[in-house]
Amino acid sequence: MTDVTTHASPSTPPTGASATGPAEPGGRRRPLRRVHPAWWVAAVSFLTIVGAAAFASAPGLLVEPLNADLGWSRATVGLGVSVQLALYGLTAPFAAALMDRFGMRPVVATALGVIATGALLTMWMTEPWQFVLCWGVLVGLGSGCMALAFTATVTSRWFVARRGLVSGILTAAGASGQLVFLPLMSWLVEQRGWQSVSVTVAITAALVVPLVLLWLRDHPADLGLAPYGGTYVPKPAPVHGAAVRTLRVLGRAARTGPFWLLAGAFAICGASTNGLVKTHFVPAAHDHGMPITAAASLLAVIGLFDVVGTIASGWFTDRWSPRVLLGVYYTLRGISLLFLPGLMAPQVEPPMIFFIVFYGLDWVATVPPTLALCREIYGEDAAIVFGWVLASHQVGAGVVAYAGGLVRDATGSYDLVWYGAGLLCAAAAAMSLVVRSRARTAPLPR
Question: Is 25 left (phi over 0), alpha (psi -120 to 50) or beta?
């Protein structure tokens, strides 16, 4: 896409920038049209999230191998995944504030290094606490900086127009990574063992670091430009006291009803996606005789349609009420989960393919409208508020990642978990529909 690059002062463009192109008849100068740098930042952010998505694709593939190789129960493995998912969410709001303090580039590069270290160390683990420490704590902390709060920061700084669309594209990046890595890692598990997954995650995260250091830019003002579709805004000074500010934003948001409605609905979103389907779909399908590679391929197909659904949701969010969109998304998701237990079979049947396509379109379609509501209600603090809303998403995911393993160990089946998640989605739909607009909250004192 192209845009007329807007500078701080049209008559005095920054050094090295050309504000006008060739002369037109009559002596007027044509504006120089080129791809706005915001789209390059979005492209680098997309590739970064795709590369980091390798670690998010792995937990569901580790349940059976760790059970067979080390004798760990599904609940034990689920505990490590639960810690990773919860820290992923709880780190996100602090990461958004750290990006305000130090910039996106150093925060994201450091996070990728932590992910690579944590994943690599799991190769030598022999006890469950080591899995919790390496995969749960280290990968959880690193991945939290790559969470959707990163998407919120990029879109808030670099875009005024097309925010919903770009939010959808960057959200879909994680699904794209899932699509790329799941089939590869499921093959590695069967051919080379679960340790090969740890190596793949570590290498992938490390390879993304140079992209971040070379191409990710912190703010349009660094290039003397306006954000895409907006007017020039000077780069704000670094915000000190990131942790204090993050907690103060939480305190203020927690005194508002919309925050609890959004956080509650998003907790159910996480429970019904990352916590349940991403963690337990492969072992649940394997319980019914489906090969791990076939089940992992179905999850990859979810990733394919998630890209379509999330980008479409971003487009819808620019045009229709985000509350209504959320109500529709959660309702459809709940209905599909209620049908899932009856679709499990040793082979991939057409009804299961229909579920995978349908569920994929809805997977994280909830993100663009939820982010839009945070911007609408909380203004300049939206990225941090969304970080806390995302924390609830991941806490919900972590609870179900662990609880799903407990239910399977106790009953020998995942059926009760699927039905319970379907009913919870109905509650999420109701909470989303009753969120009401109010005067935009003034930003907190820095």
Answer: beta
Q: What is the dihedral of CA 109, 112, 114, 115, to 10 degrees?
A: 180
225: helix, coil or strand? strand
* Model confidence pLDDT, tens digit, residues 147-197: 666 877 888 888 888 887 887 788 777 666 766 677 788 788 888 888 888
Assigned fold of 35-224+238-433: Growth Hormone; Chain: A; (1.20.1250)
User: Which residue, 399, 371, 366, 404, is CA-closest to 385?
Assistant: 371
In tens, the pLDDT along 77-102 reads 878 877 887 787 788 777 877 887 88
pTM greater than the 0.70 cutoff: no
| Residue 13 burial (CB count, 10 A) | 18
Per DSSP, the residues of 320-371 read: S-HHHHHHHHHHHHHHHHHHGGGG--SS--HHHHHHHHHHHHHSSTTHHHHH
- Domains of the chain, by residue range, sit at 35-224+238-433
**What pLDDT score does 327 carry?**
93
Transcribe 129-177 into DSSP letters.
Answer: HHHIIIIIIIHHHHHHTTSHHHHHHHHHHHBSTTHHHHHHHHHHHHHHH
Beta strands (DSSP E) in 237-279 are none
- What integer pLDDT is reported at residue 55 of this predicted model? 67
Q: Which residues of the chain have pLDDT under 50?
A: 1-32, 439-446
Amino acid in the structure at residue 225: L
Determine which helix (DSSP H) or strand (DSSP E) holds 68, and give its type and residue range.
Answer: helix 59-70
